Amino acid sequence: MSTHAEDLPARDEPDDGPPAAGPVTNLVIALLVVILGGAALAGSLSLGVGSASAPGPGTWPAMVSAALVVLGLALGARARHADDAERFTRASLLVLAAVATMVVFVAVVGVIGFEIPTAVLAFVWLRFLGHESWRTSIVISLAAAVAFYLLFVVALDVSIPHMF
Asked: Suppose 21 and one of 25, 51, 122, 158 were both cysteines; which one would form an S-S bond, judging by CB atoms 3.0 to 4.6 Å apart?
């Protein structure tokens, strides 16, 4: 199959993608990233980071949180010049829905174990956010829950809340 020049869009044609965000939105998002990273850093430091030879439970979370703070600051510094971020639209609500389902997932895992919430989360993401078929959503969500159980509980013996 060959591609002909006339099949490709011209470089000067306007892009029909979503509108660009703008400097205020970019700055607000950068600030939110810094706040999230700072809160996560405070939480991870309270866990204890240990030392290089004996890392504590907060070591990796602290490193990721510090990276979030640095990246948020870099994003803020480029807020006026960044033109590749999209303006919030109705489609952005899908991201909020995904975050909300993750919050619910985290809230219930400690109470009922991870198996059912994992299957439900995968199903919701596949069926309602990803618009997969019912059959695909059911099969993959159940397979994911079984695979995570076998990997984390059976093979790696990770101490996470589980039902079985």
From this structure: 25
Contact 66, 41 (CB under 8 A): yes
Render pLDDT for 9-50 as a digit per residue (tens, 0 to 9): 555 555 566 777 788 888 998 999 999 999 999 999 998 888
- C-alpha 15/C-alpha 83 separation (Å) is 13
Residues 14 and 78 in one domain: yes
Q: What is the rounded distance in angstroms from the CA atom of residue 20 to the CA atom of residue 83?
A: 6
| CA distance linking residue 27 with residue 79, whole number of Å | 5
The rounded distance, in Å, linking the Cα atoms of 76 and 145 is 39
> How far, in Å, CA of 67 to CA of 62, rounded?
8
Per-residue pLDDT, 51: 86
Q: Name the pTM for this structure.
A: 0.60
DSSP calls for 20-54: B--HHHHHHHHHHHHHHHHHHHHHHHHH--B-SSS
Domain of residue 29: give its range: 9-88
* Residues 18 and 71 placed together within one structural domain of the fold: yes
Q: CA-to-CA distance for 37 and 10, rounded, in angstroms?
A: 42
Checking if the pLDDT of 5 tops 60, the result is no
- Residue 161 confidence class, pLDDT cut points 50, 70, 90: confident
Closest CA to 36 of 72, 7, 9: 72
